[in-house]
Amino acid sequence: MWEPPGQNQSCVSEFILLGFSSDPTTNRILFIAFLLLYLSSVLGNGLIVTLICLDSHLHTPMYFFLCILSLLDMGYVSTTMPQMLVHLLVHSQTISFARCWIQMYVFGALALTECIFFVVMAYDRYVAICHPLRYMVILSWDLCTQLTVGTWTCGFFFSLIHTFFTMKLPYCGPNIVNHYFCEGPSVRSLACMDTHSIELVDLVISVFMVVAPLSLILASYIHITLAVLKIKSTRGRCKAFSTCASHLTVVTFFYAPATYIYMRPNSSYSPEQDKQISLFYNVFTALLNPVVYSLRNKDIKGAFLKVMGCGSMTLQTGSRRAWIRISNIRIRKHI
């Protein structure tokens, strides 16, 4: 049975993150690969946020939610990747107990927020397809703000519960975490006591934050499918389904590995496999979002071309003015 935190104080003051390899050459190759992935994720999501903020045509609920999703991706990939990149280059791979606590909490909060936020985005698609004439009336800016604040509040609250119970376990022996960041199941496996009660707490959280959102997303897309099948033209059906394809792709790549990691018993914990699987919902999903939403979205591509066009026109106008000034100066000298 689990005892109150005060009766078993942790003796471990820091953890050692093993990462992916101990070979310096392999680590340098991994550093370059992960650095490119990290920069691509941050720049891609940052570009989407910038385009949505600059283009007034994208100031709609759908793109507001996409902007929030990009901010979430930039946030939670930045809680793990910079530290991993440093550890790939230096010999010391330690992380203090307090920093591990903070990393686990922030990463969990942003990831859980994204879990719920996918439901909000599915609801947005449901309203857009099933109630297109009332889209802006139903999804008012007040409701969009309330949905966003509510998802962030739930994510940070449930992450606090998960992190508190995990980090309050007694860690009195080994401190080597076979992972590249402080993920809950990896750290919990080092506790020097039975963790079945904590696993039960995580299971309850997973039901609320994974199973319930997935059920709501499924219900939304059942209604969407029924509505699309009523459209007589094939072109109209394809257009309606294409607006949901991006969301479904990202949801699949995020939920599938996260469900495997957090909804299985601790007895089936496999460190090497978990490290690889966690890359999908931590790194690749954040990289996938801007690729999927930009390549399949004409509005995003149009906003990008508009911004680039304005930039090039500004440069041309500036150079033309400079040339006119130089010409006037030469004429005055000649006179």
TrEMBL record:
Broad class of where this protein is predominantly found: membrane
Role summary: Putative odorant or sperm cell receptor.
Matching Pfam families: 7tm_4
Regions that span the bilayer: 29-54, 61-81, 101-123, 135-161, 203-228, 240-258, 278-295
Lineage: Eukaryota, Metazoa, Chordata, Craniata, Vertebrata
Membrane topology (UniProt): Multi-pass membrane protein
Keywords: Cell membrane, G-protein coupled receptor, Membrane, Olfaction, Receptor, Sensory transduction, Transducer, Transmembrane, Transmembrane helix
Name this polypeptide is given: Olfactory receptor 2A12-like
Gene: LOC103116260
Places the protein is found: Cell membrane
Signal sequence segment: none
All residue ranges annotated as the G-protein coupled receptors family 1 profile domain in the record: 44-293
Organism (species): Erinaceus europaeus
